[in-house]
Specification:
By secondary structure, this protein is mainly alpha-helical. It is about 55% helix and about 10% strand. A hairpin with a 3-residue loop joins strand 3 and strand 4.
């Protein structure tokens, strides 16, 4: 269950951590539009490479937009939004309603609510696009180029989150590192994914406990410990998208006075680099400048008398 007072309690801590991540990524990005590539989800589309319809010409495999990963994340976000709006407990709500929401009413008991929360935790750390966003932001803090070709299937989730996100920011964004270190547990994620847990009267017990494995040393956690992890995870998830929108607005504003828009860098798999231009056009949004010049400029004619 989400408690409004706990969200307020941890909000500054999480917000400042995410702010640090974006600020450092923005400062040290090796090309000024790499952060924009994260925001609009640029990726290498393998389907375009394998296209073999002779009646339709091949398009560039370097694209931006939702893609499958974006559509999956959209559905997840809609689910999160609907659930949390229904079950958030506000400070000024009548006690009777709080009791009902907390699971003592006829719909959900405490165990069921905790299991729903565990599911949200798992879904947060499994969402491909969310993890790709964190992965590329972490790269930018080191001045590494945006990775157009990253496929999450190539890297296990545990290694991706602990090595390519958490540990990648240990020096460059230590506040963000500390946040991830305190709320992400591969043992908890795996226990949820494989149903190796038990909701006891005093907390959550894990059956993937293994004292010989440094990743699985938790016997269990109390409900109070879980509440902290859960609320901070939800705040992290939310603030990532808030900051994405903030920087998106900045790139839009900067593009308004630029005929060509923003130059972007495309890193190919063979190590070569090409550059292109993205223009922001109302109301269509971002588009390749080549498309703008082809389909929009031709509508206008200068008549000299």
């Amino acid at each position: 269950m989400l408690y409004e007072e706990k969200l307020k309690l941890y909000d500054d801590e999480v917000k400042n951590s995410v702010d640090e991540l974006f600020t450092v990524a923005d400062k040290y990005q090796s090309h000024y539009s790499d952060l924009l590539l994260i925001i609009i989800h640029c990726f290498f589309n393998e389907d375009a490479v394998n296209w073999n319809n002779p009646n339709i010409p091949k398009l560039s495999p370097f694209v931006f937009g939702s893609g499958n990963e974006g559509l999956m994340l959209k559905s997840q976000n809609e689910f999160f939004h609907a659930y949390f709006n229904m079950y958030i407990i506000k400070e000024d709500e009548p006690q009777e309603l709080k009791i009902f929401k907390e699971g003592n009413g006829p719909i959900l008991n405490k165990s069921a609510i905790i299991q729903m929360e565990l599911m949200f935790y798992l879904k947060s750390w499994e969402a491909d696009l969310f993890l790709k966003i964190l992965y590329n932001l972490s790269r930018l803090t080191h001045g590494k180029n945006y990775d157009w070709h990253k496929k999450l299937k190539d890297t296990g989730r545990t290694n991706l989150i602990t090595e390519n996100i958490r540990n990648m920011t240990k020096v460059t964004a230590p506040t963000f590192y500390n946040l991830i270190d305190s709320i992400y547990s591969p043992q908890i994620r795996n226990a949820i994914a494989h149903s190796k847990y038990w909701i006891a009267s005093d907390g959550i017990k894990f059956f993937n406990y293994d004292p010989s494995d440094k990743l699985n040393t938790l016997i269990g956690i109390t409900f109070i410990e879980w509440e902290v992890i859960f609320h901070k995870t939800i705040l992290l998830y939310n603030h990532i998208f808030v900051f994405l929108q903030f920087y998106h607005n900045r790139y839009q504003e900067l593009a308004k006075d630029k005929h060509f828009g923003h130059q972007i860098r495309i890193n190919r798999k063979d190590g070569s680099i090409v550059y292109d231009w993205l223009r922001y056009n109302e109301p269509e949004g971002w588009m390749w400048y080549s498309n703008y010049s082809k389909y929009y400029l031709k509508r206008f004619h200068i008549i000299i008398k």
